[in-house]
Amino acid sequence: xxxxxxxxxxxxxxxxxxxxxxxxxxxxxxxxxxxxxxxxxxxxxxxxxxxxxxxxxxxxxxxxxxxxxxxxxxxxxxxxxxxxxxxxxxxxxxxxxxxxxxxxxxxxxxxxxxxxxxxxxxxxxxxxxxxxxxxxxxxxxxxxxxxxxxxxxxxxxxxxxxxxxxxxxxxxxxxxxxxxxxxxxxxxxxxxxxxxxxxxxxxxxxxxxxxxxxxxxxxxxxxxxxxxxxxxxxxxxxxxxxxxxxxxxxxxxxxxxxxxxxxxxxxxxxxxxxxxxxxxxxxxxxxxxxxxxxxxxxxxxxxxxxxxxxxxxxxxxxxxxxxxxxxxxxxxxxxxxxxxxxxxxxxxxxxxxxxxxxxxxxxxxxxxxxxxxxxxxxxxxxxxxxxxxxxxxxxxxxxxxxxxxxxxxxxxxxxxxxxxxxxxxxxxxxxxxxxxxxxxxxxxxxxxxxxxxxxxxxxxxxxxxxxxxxxxxxxxxxxxxxxxxxxxxxxxxxxxxxxxxxxxxxxxxxxxxxxxxxxxxxxxxxxxxxxxxxxxxxxxxxxxxxxxxxxxxxxxxxxxxxxxxxxxxxxxxxxxxxxxxxxxxxxxxxxxxxxxxxxxxxxxxxxxxxxxxxxxxxxxxxxxxxxxxxxxxxxxxxxxxxxxxxxxxxxxxxxxxxxxxxxxxxxxxxxxxxxxxxxxxxxxxxxxxxxxxxxxxxxxxxxxxxxxxxxxxxxxxxxxxxxxxxxxxxxxxxxxxxxxxxxxxxxxxxxxxxxxxxxxxxxxxxxxxxxxxxxxxxxxxxxxxxxxxxxxxxxxxxxxxxxxxxxxxxxxxxxxxxxxxxxxxxxxxxxxxxxxxxxxxxxxxxxxxxxxxxxxxxxxxxxxxxxxxxxxxxxxxxxxxxxxxxxxxxxxxxxxxxxxxxxxxxxxxxxxxxxxxxxxxxxxxxxxxxxxxxxxxxxxxxxxxxxxxxxxxxxxxxxxxxxxxxxxxxxxxxxxxxxxxxxxxxxxxxxxxxxxxxxxxxxxxxxxxxxxxxxxxxxxxxxxxxxxxxxxxxxxxxxxxxxxxxxxxxxxxxxxxxxxxxxxxxxxxxxxxxxxxxxxxxxxxxxxxxxxxxxxxxxxxxxxxxxxxxxxxxxxxxxxxxxxxxxxxxxxxxxxxxxxxxxxxxxxxxxxxxxxxxxxxxxxxxxxxxxxxxxxxxxxxxxxxxxxxxxxxxxxxxxxxxxxxxxxxxxxxxxxxxxxxxxxxxxxxxxxxxxxxx
Length: 1238
What we know:
Family: Belongs to the ABC transporter superfamily. ABCB family. Multidrug resistance exporter (TC 3.A.1.201) subfamily.
Subcellular location: Cell membrane
Mean pLDDT: 76
Helix content: 55-70%
Low-confidence stretches: 1-24, 614-652
Number of helices: 42
Number of strands: 20
Protein name: ATP-binding cassette sub-family B member 5
EC number: 7.6.2.2
Main location: membrane
Strand order of the largest sheet: 6-7-8-3-9-10
Largest sheet: 6 strands, mixed
């Protein structure tokens, strides 16, 4: 251990200063803390790896010594030739064999150092991933309220990858460089201390410039990223809400908003390009200056003290010190990686160590043998940890006797759902206690407690697997019989047996392939399969239409028998039969009793019931329809589910694009490109010139006359300085020109791509290949990839061609035999450099694909955390996650030795090549085919050129990726949608009255062509009239509204507006006449007033109009009650507002544009009775003088419509007023009756 110890310590010290911003001390774990999950065996392997690395580090300086001695023997032979004409070949051969020896050692050491570290890193990373995921799964709910879900998934992938980078070969590579640094300086001092000191005098400049540069670069990069992150967030928010954006003609606003945020990112990018290249140029300048100084002083010494300083010693000292100094610089990025890993580990390890007061994995707590089911809430006070200042429950007292059903009623936001969450122990109350069978639930085992409760919530979450698996999540050991029984009890048997795969049908991500009612019944089956003693129903039937609802309600009544049940409902008719009804108000239970008692009492319950009764002319239950699903898939009959899953299209392959086409993208910046290319051309000549001067200087030493020696070295030294100056200028010009043109291109492309996305029709967004995540990634990465393929690639090519041409021409002139040998070796050298750079660029990308699967599992689990915890299925998901890690883990173990070998090969090749060249060179000299100066010249000219190419190739952005990106971008820019929002064509009638007709409409969604949603729909509505569409979910009601908005075009038939086909009208004009209020309104993350203003994007909406609309939508008073009034932010997707509040803001937004036609898609469904009544009044007022199309499940809200159309299977089956249809006794009558009897 003692040997490994100091090496580890040396790394700690420089660490503190590197790559960390001054602002606040970044939180990081200690260096040794990083390895806290390593086993003893792994620690031992790492120490062996460090030892190998240390020995490997000494190899380079040793090579300098051999090289120096060899140069000496060449020079002596040169002097001998000058004097006597004889030459000894033997001496040089020995040195050539030394090279081979060092090469072999390097190969062995290199393999082991990398392999051992990668093996241990892979093992540790897997352990950390598992521990972290396990920790997340068992956090308490309040932790999730304060941590964003997106961030957690990033941690699981990116942060842990960062830790992996830090644990991997970075450390041993750093140790290797550090040893090179030490041994280089030691050798320098041994062989010539005066010269070493002189060279050292310059090195602070080098080190300083490198440090300053990396610092500036790091800050600029992070600023550039955060600047783009803002734009990315804007893009994501807009793409998620694309239907809303389109309906309100918000494309232009969206593109402008996105563009504003791009400006910053561009400016930072240009600054970054300039800094990078100035500092690189400066470094080059200093290096060449050092060359000049060292050789000038070296010759001076060799003339003054020939016994101490020969050319060989000068070269040994010079190169070992330079290599030493550089290796410190090369080691630094590795420290950066370790620093990043320590930073990333901080949050990850913190979460792992987080104390978990409510831990479902703990074995502690009492597990009674049987549950009777007596529940009591005693004086409960509670507020959510994320919003401490808002008291939700203020002294709730409530008793639920065993086997009884208790219903909680009250306005939304009064604490009903909170009570249920406390009972499940998602949170602990601030004061008071909850008891089950007389025991405080805090003394019971958490997992046991949750296993004894079945919960069905308002928006059921299904997981992306089969129906049977989803139900089995209720109870792991459920047999097929149990599942079938539960399915029958939940009344889902009929629809499941119609599916092609029955219980094995996949439900899609989040159950998206099923309608709301189907999802709800599966969720009920899942709750019933565990045969719980306690049943919690949180608005369980709210998402169903009347027919399924009565069926499910019957199922629930059956399920309640003999169980303690707590029901929450807005719809009071569903709970009249409850044993006890508790009325909530302001976080307290203000009354309880049976339906009869409470009606007699005339309190909260009575007023709620009366509102509903008066409101629904005869007692029609209040169907709350919340169904995210339909936003997506609108209406899917059963066969559709099956089809959608089988029909996963291949992602569109990007077309192959010629390089000229990509360059053409950069056309507007051609002056920048031209200057950049020219400076690259000049830059290419720098290295060959350096090599020639280097060889000339060595040649000077065979001069016998000291005076000639001095003059010549002086001249060559000044030439070195001159070349340094040229290098500085070319670097700066090249960097600035390509940087500027690249950033301008990136910004332009991002804008154009976003503009093109905004233009696509809705059907394009339905396609899985264009999911929001895919599109935002495309915006972020594709444009910046293309940047790399234009300017810098052009520069690289000219640079390389120039360097190679000069080098080869010069070499052939001086010694063609040696040149041929060297050219044969060049591929090896370039290959070695390339492998080396690629290996250092990191191995992370390889495992990305495999890790995506585990990312999917973790995302699904974390996003639906409440459901997972409520079902106590943490372990199931944890094991799924672990299994998904197995493959990348095995790959990692296999790859470690491979990476070790490639690394070692890359390191060892140069030693072997040198041996070959000098062995052959000495033979040529001995046989008088060439002079020794030429051997050096040829060697250095080609080696320098190869170095230059290898180096620049490593900086080269990946061209293949850039090509693919450019292909995708051009494909999108050229894609002209059928329904083009940007086209100015089409009529804009001036006297629009609002006469709408659907004539013979047939339609299927583009992603599911074989499922006909509308099959000959004929229905019309006159100006100023109200048409109501009713029918089961999935019959095509919402689809018809989407066709009127022209989100899609019908397959056949026409949608007519004032007698004109909508296809002939100007699209944005048409949409500006329609005001849409949808079922699940999407709000943007800005203030309330901005959200309302969004209703009319064609002008500036004044504050008075906003307030007027808010008053009409009945939310003005609520807004005025908020601390910031109209400037209150509504949160991401409007999360800070309750459903009813969001809905009213959305109504205000639709009213602001004063539309001629109002489209209400279940607009009041998400409200409780009080708000609903108010909003319904607002809507009735808004309907005056406007054509209105209403979709509702709740038939009472549409009795006064001028026309009611019943849609079944995509056709209108009957039409008329409420009275006509009731008299007819057909489909409508049946729907109404189902609701009334219920």
